[in-house]
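Hi R.,

Here are the chain sequences for the assembly we discussed:
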Amino acid sequence: MIPAIALAIGVALGLFFEPTVPAALQPYLPIAVVAALDAVFGAVRAQLDGIFDDRVFVVSFVSNVVVAGLVVFLGDQLGVGGQLSTGVVVVLGIRIFSNAAAIRRHVFRA
Amino acid sequence: MNDVTPAAPGPLRRLLHPRLRSVDIAVAVLLGALGFAAAVQVRSTDADEGVLASARQEDLVAILDDLSSRNARLRQEAAALTATRDRLTSGNGRDAAALAEARRRTQVLGILAGTVAARGPGVLLTITDPDGKIGPEVLLDALEELRDAGAEAVQIEGPVDVDNPGGGRPAEGPSSGAVVRVVAGTAFVDGGDRGGIEVDGVLLRAPYRFVVIGDPSTMAAALAIPGGVLDNVEQGGGQALVSRSEDVRVTTLRPLDRPRYARPAEEPNAN
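And here is the predicted structure of the full complex:
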């Protein structure tokens, strides 16, 4: 409950303040958001599986974001930032899909 | 992503009765940050400058490359189009000059062919014929004499009197009675029973009047030479009166007949 409320508050704050993204962070923010979404979907799936653990969620969330950002940063340094960020998005997207499929099986039994 | 962990207490109970621990706060903060970041990202993507502002360096370089190559292509195209336009414009100028020249020729030829009204200095030659002895040869003589003296446009009116209708075409212009514009093919024929003289199918009666544009003094002198037109007319019992004028108007027109057989032959150096 509290996480859902916090999510809503965060969305509301972002829409309300409309801060501009710093130029240095612009390539990383979308990747970070996708990575965090992956972590959240994983958490929901774990919750439904009954194996959710806050600590694991926090660690996986933070590490997901950090690793995704690092990979993109590394790609930028190597000159393949565009391709690597695409790759990261693809991988995370696949994981989100598989998590969503697991959640679906839990919710709809199908 | 959650790795498998030892079984936690019932998830439902946990969801309904949250205990505030530091981990819960961390989760809440993380999710709040996620929502915030997602909202900000969505907003900045929506913004107008989003496409370029959020593009990475190499993408920008690629876009710039693309733009500059397209720019070069468009520049080439613009240069080609400019050349075409210049060519067309200069061609237009030549066409305009040719058109002006053609118009000028039309005017000159129109005066010769009698399709254009003319004005200028000239003489009025009035020939009376009280005895009816003035024949077509006299008028032809007078016309030849005038042409020799440089007459450029001629019309013959007759009768000059307003009250004598005469025959033939209605007058065009200020003069009344029958009027004929004299051109290269003009012929004088005796009117026979009807009297008078038929000029190009129009019956003219005395007194006749030549309206001539040309050098007035030359023509007047040519008409007055001994044994010339004036003497001829007087021998026939008539009177010839020459009056010079600085502004003579030859206003009678003649329809342009298209030659039935003759066609323009190509000149070798025609342009």
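Residues 72 and 78 of chain A are 10 Å apart (CA to CA). The longest helix of chain A spans residues 81-108.

Let me know if anything looks off.

Best,
T.
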